[in-house]
Amino acid sequence: MFEVQVVVDQHVHRRLPFHGDDTRFDGASLPAQAPVRLIRRTPHPAASKEIPMSRPAIVLSRLDVERIENLLDRLPATEAQQHAPLRAELERAEVREPAGMPADVVTMNSTVTFSEESTGERITLALVYPGAAGKPGTVSILAPVGSALLGLARGQEIDWPMPGGQSRRLRVMEIGYQPEAAGALHR
After folding, report:
1. How does residue 138 score in pLDDT terms, banded at 50, 70 and 90?
2. Which residues contact 75 (CB under 8 A, 6 or more apart)?
3. Which of 11, 23, 81, 152 is deepest in the core (most CB within 10 A)?
4. Predicted TM-score of the model (pTM)
5. Are residues 84 and 46 in the same domain?
6. Nearest of 131, 132, 163 to residue 145 by alpha carbon
7. CB-count burial class (<10 Å; 0-12, 13-18, 19+) for 88
8. Which one has a higher pLDDT value, 4 or 123?
9. Helix 62-74 crosses helix 84-92 at what angle (to 10 degrees)?
10. Which residues pair with 168 in a beta bridge?
11. Are 48 and 60 contained in the same domain?
12. What is the pLDDT of residues 6-28, one digit of tens each?
């Protein structure tokens, strides 16, 4: 048995158990005759012995997920392994179409103000793809802080592993700009 992610009427339904030999979705309340498109197939959690990490629920744009997955797939294998936590976030997220994104969620190209618990410092950065990173006021999605912020809503916090084995607790304070909220759905 696998877990699949499907799109029905532009809404993504996650964690639907799927029997690979047919088209049954256990316990799914999908509308009859609805177009269903398979996005991703991953092992069902029951097949894994791992204990899931406690993290806040996150919501991601389908477009962001596709672009980040393509970015990760193009990295050399040794570098891609360093970004396993980001790939895990993509896998566990609730995915929505860009037009359905809540305005208080950090998406790609959003400007977000967050605080770091240990210092109390408030930082404002734009979450960008690596090609746009390096400019003042930006952070790459491939940086640990960037990966941690993606998909969080205002008020949510997360403990995120940093290089060297330490972790930082980040809390989203404000989203000054979000492309989806501004109508830039295909940026």
Report:
1. very high
2. 83
3. 152
4. 0.69
5. no
6. 163
7. middle
8. 123
9. 150
10. 160
11. no
12. 555 555 544 444 444 444 444 44
65 and 48 part of one domain: no
Q: Which residues pair with 138 in a beta bridge?
A: 126
Percentage with pLDDT > 90 across the chain = 49
Confirm if 152 and 173 have CB atoms less than 8 A apart: no
Whether 184 and 111 map to the same domain: the answer is yes
Backbone angles phi, psi at 86, to 5 degrees: -65, -45
State both tokens at 130: 């690596």
Residue type present at position 186: H
As for how many domains the chain has, the answer is: 2
The residues, any chain, with a CB within 8 Å of residue 143's CB and separated by 6 or more, are 133
Domain limits for position 158: 55-187
The amino acid that residue 153 corresponds to is A
